[in-house]
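Quick note —
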Amino acid sequence: MANPQQPSNTPAPLEELQDDGSNSLQDFVLTILATSDRAMHVDEVLETIELLRAKGRTEKLGNSKRPSEDVRTALNRLVGKGRVEKVATATYAVARDHPTAGKAEAA
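Predicted structure written out below.
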């Protein structure tokens, strides 16, 4: 298990994320992707939010009739803003400044 007093440059594990309620679903999805050590499939992002809801760490998607579609919409909007990259089918990662992040096929 992770030590709760981690150095500030080490992100908290996904299951320890806490939503303060003031951010949007897009912001929370971006935080989840930034905390992950790899790209995540849309279903993994949804599962993470559901796990955090079960632990009482977020209220996101609590009233959603279509949580999967809400997560997909948030991810697509983040892609449109250039904050997230689609790296494979329904798989996303935080957009990085490095040319290697999701752009290997461009050559």
